[in-house]
């Protein structure tokens, strides 16, 4: 029996898993992400954790196929990161450093791309070779998978679906400096922005509070039949559908998998996306499958492991 | 020495080529596309032409690696076309029929995708593994190539870049039924549309004629320094750049290759695209290479041949 490690580095914790080569998670744990001092302890901490887990389990290094790692930043094909604000890293040769520390081969990928790979392997996109995962979190990330491979792109910007322009008249600025990015409407932050604008101009009764409203509040109110919340969700769905329509005429996947914090609202989300999608879509790809991500926090671990097994 | 045939089926003529396996075109000819009677003579005519050329050259069927064919329609992975308005075809098993007629293995692809493959192999995208070709003709077509493979998509709609939405407020309808598709601004027809609108509202002197203006007229006038024409070209460039910005955050290719009839205007075209592209692009892919297609009408023949050699 062979094994591999899947590692998902986040800004607060590093999620780690030991898997067998069928993708079964045998063990799962977290360590703290030490972002101080330009995050220089992060890789040594991961290496130490891997080596001690290997020992604890009575495994030899030869039993370990490799270590897959998802990083919240663009990653080159050589496993180099040119800066990650969340981790404090500037230039970092992640693959080389980690291999030197562990003596085990490593594969490094962008976290959103890695999560997409996990969902294709074991989650909402299971059985498909062509899928797009949209991660609706603080921002909007994504992974475009064609023939089972993630599109990373020449500048590591493949699958940066949060920055598809869905409104050429938006006056407000996206974090990236542009205007009208999908992220401005479909992320948790974007939904709050839509909600606040709506609530300011609203005189009808609603369960939502003008001063303090979250994406979760909006979808909870939708479930309770709150008309104002429903209209906010419709606006969110219109913009997200516009982004997906553009994705569909480029990548034409078999399925869209919706993940990230916002997707925890559940099935209630899907009609808000599906209806405007079908209205706007190019005629040859109107019939699309939309599904929710199913792996939750394990998507990163699974996808990272999948990279080393490929 | 082994050989292959590259076939590019258009609505008026079928362009055919005999190539060696290095991609050298040894012979090149055309036959008429007989679109009458649901285009039932098209494949038999192609087969006859291939068999007689093989005989004429003193080749054996065993010397022929295969026949690659580009078709103006979406094509499934099995080489089936579900209708092509330009050829009169309804459902047609192109691969099976052609193989039965010739006794030679065939590979069938969408013509825009096939041309992109040709430009990657021998033209403007030569040496790159990731490129996007945009064909600015009567419509706007394209081919998205990732790791040397064209993205065909689950519904044959991969690389339908003419239907990226670049204006969510467009009142006029695209041929596809949607509003604001790239094709409405960046095709030869789209440029004429922009020009007519501009000229209607224009009191300045210009070399362009209100009643009869072509895309070529516009770029000829640009070359002569005509200010009205320059502003039409700027509008065209703004919309095309918006489409490319969306392509770049999804596919992130190394190079954009601009082809099709409009690209015959030459290098004068590129600054009109590059300047707004750099203004609008996502920060990590602002530095892009734009280049003109170089194979002209041979792109289809070359790309079709490349399919059978892959």
Can you describe this structure?
- Two copies of one chain form a homodimer.
- Chain A has ten helices and twelve strands.
- Chain A has 310 residues and is an alpha/beta fold.
- In chain A, the strands form three sheets. The first copy, chain A, has a five-stranded mixed beta sheet. Chain A has a five-stranded mixed beta sheet with strand order 10-9-8-11-12, sandwiched between helices. In chain A, strands 5-6 form a two-stranded antiparallel ribbon.
- In chain A, strand 1 and strand 2 (13-20) form a beta hairpin.
- The longest helix of chain A is centred in the C-terminal third of the chain and has 25 residues, at 227-251.
- The two termini of chain A are 17 Å apart.
- The model of chain A has no long low-confidence stretch (mean pLDDT 94).
- At the A-B interface, helix 8 of A face helix 8 of B.
């Amino acid at each position: 029996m062979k094994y591999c490690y899947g590692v998902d580095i986040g800004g607060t914790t590093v999620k780690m898993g030991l898997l067998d080569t069928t993708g079964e998670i045998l063990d799962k744990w977290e360590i703290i992400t030490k972002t101080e001092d330009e995050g220089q302890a992060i890789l040594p901490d991961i290496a130490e954790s891997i080596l001690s887990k290997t020992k604890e389990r009575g495994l030899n290094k030869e039993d370990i196929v490799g270590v897959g790692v998802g990083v919240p930043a663009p990653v080159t094909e050589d496993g180099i990161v040119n800066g990650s604000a969340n981790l404090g890293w500037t230039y970092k040769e992640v693959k080389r450093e980690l291999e030197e520390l562990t003596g085990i081969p490593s594969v490094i990928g962008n976290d959103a791309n890695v999560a997409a790979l996990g969902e294709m392997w074991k989650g909402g996109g299971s059985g498909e070779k062509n899928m797009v995962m949209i991660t609706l979190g603080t921002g909007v990330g994504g992974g475009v998978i064609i023939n089972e491979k993630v599109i990373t792109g020449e500048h590591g910007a493949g699958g940066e679906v949060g920055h598809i322009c869905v409104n050429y008249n938006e006056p407000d600025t996206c974090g990236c400096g542009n205007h009208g990015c999908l992220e401005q409407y479909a992320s948790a932050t974007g939904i709050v922005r839509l909600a606040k604008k709506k609530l300011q101009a609203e005189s009808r009764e609603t369960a939502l509070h003008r001063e303090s409203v979250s994406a979760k509040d909006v979808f909870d109110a939708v479930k309770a039949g709150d008309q104002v919340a429903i209209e906010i969700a419709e606006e969110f769905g219109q913009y997200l559908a516009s982004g997906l329509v553009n994705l569909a005429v480029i990548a034409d996947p078999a399925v869209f998998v919706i993940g990230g914090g916002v997707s925890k609202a559940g099935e209630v989300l899907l009609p808000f996306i599906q209806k405007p999608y079908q209205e706007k879509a190019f005629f040859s790809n109107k019939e699309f499958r939309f599904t929710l991500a199913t792996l939750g926090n394990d998507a990163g671990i699974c996808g990272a492991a999948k990279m080393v097994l490929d």
